[in-house]
Amino acid sequence: MKSVLITFDQAYYERIIALLDRLGCRGFTYLEKVQGRGSKTGDPHFGSHAWPSMCSAILTVVDDNKVDPLLDTLHKMDLETQQLGLRAFVWNIERTI
Length: 97
Known about the structure:
Layout: E1 2-8, H1 13-22, E2 28-32, E3 56-62, H2 64-80, E4 87-92
Antiparallel strand pairs: 1-3, 1-4, 2-3
GO molecular function, one term: enzyme regulator activity
GO biological process, one term: regulation of nitrogen utilization
InterPro entries: N-reg_PII (IPR002187), N-reg_PII-like_a/b (IPR011322), N-reg_PII/ATP_PRibTrfase_C (IPR015867)
């Protein structure tokens, strides 16, 4: 399993929830009004891809075989409306309780 953190403008909320539901990723934590800073290139800047425009985040656990479909769909969503600065971060889950 992987842990996935998705940061996004609230305009994406319903689409992301529907996507997680379609993929069977039913457990998640939703965080409103998050703040941060970053860019596609990794160089900090403020503008269309700066995190201050992203006011929400979802942390979810995803089965390994569902990570690629999730990221592919999120990437397509980002290409459609890049000004909303959708991002996803994935890491291995070492242990759970």
